[in-house]
Amino acid sequence: MNERLLIYSSNAVLTEFHGGTSIEETDFPYPDYAVVLVCDTESPGGDTGILELWHSIARNDYAVLVRGHDGREVFRDAINDDLATVVATVSDLGLVLTQLHLAQASSPYCALARDLFLKELGDAGYQQEHQEADHADL
Length: 138
Prior knowledge:
Radius of gyration: 15 Å
Strand content: 25-35%
Number of helices: 3
Distance between the termini: 36 Å
Largest sheet: 7 strands, antiparallel
Number of strands: 7
């Protein structure tokens, strides 16, 4: 929908997200979430893990999944309206994000998610130390 006009394309390609993680493995309640970012994390107690940021294009909302390095799920927060809410959740958990990776390096969708997430992190007071094409140190 653009300016209240329906845009139609007879030849559209849906971006697919792979990388060893799928909806079925995470038991998300909706089948339309795709992982866009993966962040290495450290808790206040020194435990390390991984935070996955998922996005639903259909719902335009986000979900967060935190795993220990052993792969065990330790936290799940779904249906966040915007990235500011996601960043507030990360902050409330006391997580330090040590490195951010695109779920699919060639995806412009993942790159956009990274840029938007980095902006929200910056607005919340997180400081970025270093940035490369496919990951950033926070």
